[in-house]
Amino acid sequence: MSKEFFEAVKMLEAEKGIPAQYLFEKISAAIIVAAKHDYNGKDIVHCDIDEEKQKIKVYVRKNVVEEIEDPDTDLTLEQAQAIRKSAKVGKTIDIPLKTKDFGRIVAQTAKHVIRQGIREAERGQMIQEFKSKNQEIVSAKVERIDPLTGNATLEIGKNQTVLPKTEQVPGEKLTEGDTIKVFIVDVKEGGKGPKILISRTHPGFVRRLFEQEVPEIYDGTIEIKSVSREAGSRTKIAVFTKDEDVDPVGACIGPRGQRVSNIVEVLGGEKIDIVKYSDDPAEFIAASLAPSDVCSVEIIDADAKTCKVTVPDDQLSLAIGNKGQNVRLAVRLTDWNIDIKPESGFFEGEEK
């Protein structure tokens, strides 16, 4: 029996990646819980599992006494010496138990606790695996698409998690069997197991893509100061470097635009504006409104972070963007409230 037991544990370790020692601890605890039923729950049952010798020893430790007060925990000297001749009053004696004598109900209890222990081990392993990848990009295989909600069940390593429809890029169509990249936003422990929050719309997804694609960002020469994104449509990213010999925007674009093109491809054609960060708010705000030109930036209230930006009349619609998207992204990128005015001072349709 012992040989088969140890082989089964090794098989579980190989298939599920759960350490054998962890399983032995859980199984030992399960056997103790099961055996204690025969002793009214008294804490006198012990279980030693020796992996090297492939032996399981289950025993009850009782007190050797002159007069029995609790039959569950006590033995007379005569009873003790029948088991071990060297037994003495005031000492304890270990009485071996046979697991086959536990009975059907006890065995079922043990199985339940063992299964629960294995599930806990799997959950714990899953949490640790995802925590090590928190705020990182991972590859995932699309297992299933829910036809009603559009939520996608993904396989990441040996684990499964769900990519909600709300975290998928608008307009993209996922297909079962596809391998996609996702961003792990957060990992939380819950009563029903770990909750893994993943996304393809999070700004952190773009940040990590640039770190992977641009060596100067990865090694710290270039710093990403901020990212604002409307997934599937447009992203703005502000970059900065203290190295005067490095062009942060050019490095992110790459030779012949290859680096940014690779990122755009992963994002399914999403437009990306790469702008140079500046400690001077006026310079940074002007750069954030790319691809529009800017005539001037007037700081209205530095504490409230409000400003007025003047742009050429023919650049007004470009500065504001389709449905206000360009200025909206610039506001998020800079954390400034931006009021845009045309150079003439009049909007289209107004009398000068």
Structure in a nutshell:
By secondary structure, the chain is an alpha+beta fold. It contains eleven helices and 15 strands.
Structural summary, described in words:
The chain has 352 residues and is α+β, with helices and mostly antiparallel strands. The chain has helices at residues 2-16, 20-35, 77-83, 104-131, 203-213, 215-218, 248-253, 258-266, 281-288, 316-320, 325-334; strands at residues 45-50, 55-65, 74-76, 92-97, 137-145, 152-156, 159-163, 179-190, 193-199, 222-230, 234-241, 271-276, 296-301, 306-311, 337-342. The strands form four sheets. The chain has a five-stranded antiparallel β-sheet with strand order 7-6-5-8-9. Strands 1, 2, 3 and 4 form a four-stranded mixed β-sheet that branches. Strands 10-11-12 form a three-stranded mixed β-sheet, sandwiched between helices. It is elongated and about 110 Å long. The mean pLDDT is 87.
Summarize the topology:
Blueprint: H1 2-16, H2 20-35, E1 45-50, E2 55-65, E3 74-76, H3 77-83, E4 92-97, H4 104-131, E5 137-145, E6 152-156, E7 159-163, E8 179-190, E9 193-199, H5 203-213, H6 215-218, E10 222-230, E11 234-241, H7 248-253, H8 258-266, E12 271-276, H9 281-288, E13 296-301, E14 306-311, H10 316-320, H11 325-334, E15 337-342
Parallel strand pairs: 2-3, 11-12, 14-15
Antiparallel strand pairs: 1-2, 2-4, 5-6, 5-8, 6-7, 8-9, 10-11, 13-14
